[in-house]
Amino acid sequence: MSAVLPTAAFLYERVRRVIPPIEWPAFVEDIEAILALKRERNAIILAHNYQTPEIYHCVADIVGDSLALARKAVTVEAQVIVLAGVHFMAETAKLLNPNKTVLIPDMGAGCSLADSITAQDVRLMRESYPGVPIVTYVNTSAAVKAESDICCTSGNAKAVVESLGAPRVIMLPDEYLAKNVAAETKVGIIAWKGRCEVHERFTPADIRELRAAHPGVIVLAHPECHPEVVTEADFSGSTAAMSDYVEREKPPRIVLMTECSMSDNVAVAHPDVEFVRPCNLCPHMKRITLANIRAALEENRHEIRIDPGIAGPARRAVERMLSI
């Protein structure tokens, strides 16, 4: 490590348990360049929990799940925001910071949930269920948010649903999240058929096999997983709730039924916890790299722009969520 610059050497100490020494030199030049560009451009990087450790721990300024990033985006003072995540997250940051430059390193970083529903679909649902409020997961486009009454995340979905005081609600677009919330509330839930391509692949059999192979392992499942997976797990919650669980309970051995990089990022702060890693990668999150973060900052590449006719109602739907 003596050949690398001092800042990079310091940062490597954070991630040495999850990034092999042989891989680290490939990251150093981009990390140093990104740190310099942030200072030059008055820029800040928001990174989702599913980003790889060299992004999450070495160049990001604010990290967290969708709810945390949405909340913190409101308070950002920097003039330029780089969203290390997927497209709907960058749109959400732009909705909350309309006068700032919001960049996404790769416009192709999409989401199977966001792609599962359109604004026209929401309008048809409203026609089919007149008077029923529509709760829309933040994993959707700004156009879909604009047709909704309020947004939610996996971390506050139950609270949002119950805050409306309605006997039933339409919850879009994640079918499994809607069913998992329905199991926890008396509010009737009308669900859509969208699914996360990462979480839908986990099965109860996966959990039973993990328990057999790793006796005593604690299983945490994301609420985008099938309800049978959630039932089989020891705990279910958002990525922030999973991280809090590890911090609070400090189990000797744990498995997170969610995207791969989450385990690496949490493991950095918990050297005494053994993380069993069933690896389901999100191909969209993995489109974000140090190289294209650097390029976005150098070239002002991939700026997020939202139609003004959509931005107002979409922003209000997000702001209502943040007030819960």
Automatic annotation (TrEMBL):
Pathway assigned to this chain's UniProt record: Cofactor biosynthesis; NAD(+) biosynthesis; quinolinate from iminoaspartate: step 1/1
Enzyme Commission numbers on file: 2.5.1.72
Record's keyword annotation contains NADP: no
Cofactor list: [4Fe-4S] cluster
Entries under Pfam families matching the protein: NadA
Signal peptide: none
Reactions mediated catalytically: iminosuccinate + dihydroxyacetone phosphate = quinolinate + phosphate + 2 H2O + H(+)
Cofactor note: Binds 1 [4Fe-4S] cluster per subunit.
Keywords carried by this UniProt record: 4Fe-4S, Cytoplasm, Iron, Iron-sulfur, Metal-binding, Pyridine nucleotide biosynthesis, Transferase
Keyword Cell cycle: no
Positions that bind iminosuccinate: 48, 66, 137-139, 154, 222-224, 239
Subcellular location: Cytoplasm
InterPro entries xrefs: NadA, NadA_sf, Quinolinate_synth_type2
UniProt-annotated binding residues for [4Fe-4S] cluster: 111, 196, 282
Function, in words: Catalyzes the condensation of iminoaspartate with dihydroxyacetone phosphate to form quinolinate.
Family: Belongs to the quinolinate synthase family. Type 2 subfamily.
The protein's name in its UniProt record: Quinolinate synthase
Species name: Mesorhizobium onobrychidis
